[in-house]
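Justification of resources, computational component.

The compute hours requested in this renewal are based largely on the per-chain cost of generating structure records like the one below. Each record pairs the submitted sequence with a full structure-token output. That output is archived, and it is also reused by downstream analysis tasks.
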Amino acid sequence: MPKGSPELTAARKEEIVNACEQLYQTMSFKEITLKEIGAVTSFTRTSIYNYFQTKEEIFLALYEREYDRWNEELEAIRDRHERLNRHELAEKIASSIANRQQLLKLLSMNNYDMEANSRQELLVSFKRAYGESMRNMRGLLEKFCPEMTAEEIQNFIYIFFPFMFGIYPYTAVTDKQWEAMKQANVDYVYQSMKDITYACLARLLGE
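The structure output for this chain reads:
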């Protein structure tokens, strides 16, 4: 266990996650190593093991933080509006998704491996943040679409949350992928993250 105050431990963890986030802007998950992460922190690479045992645990902490940030946006939608029609609600949620490109990028990764290579207590902490996003979405639907039944809300959640896994790879297309689709005669029509999310939400809400 790391020595020092809880504040120091939290600060060190935050610094490690920030380093991972910084690298993830220009590097892939496979390219990022504990050595790479340690090179952009203020303490030795071996010290990382006092806080995280694997690279996957660091990414899981980043993943959790992204869900926390999205939860703040969902809660703000709920608290700042007395009424929203279905079009407005779809627009607000789609905008919140478009603001969370890093969350969508993490969603598109192999979550099974990330979770399998993390300690149980860290996985539980992540699942709390994930579960809170589902509760927040349910709260939005209950407040702004009171005519929806409990079954309709559950169906909405079970369709929309899996849909989110495909937003990033479908909208963040590389030059190499563009060329491959062109050569394969794939009739691909580009949509932004907000556009594709709004289209799904509008369909689910019957807008």
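The chain has two domains: 1-52, 60-205. The chain has eleven helices and no strands.
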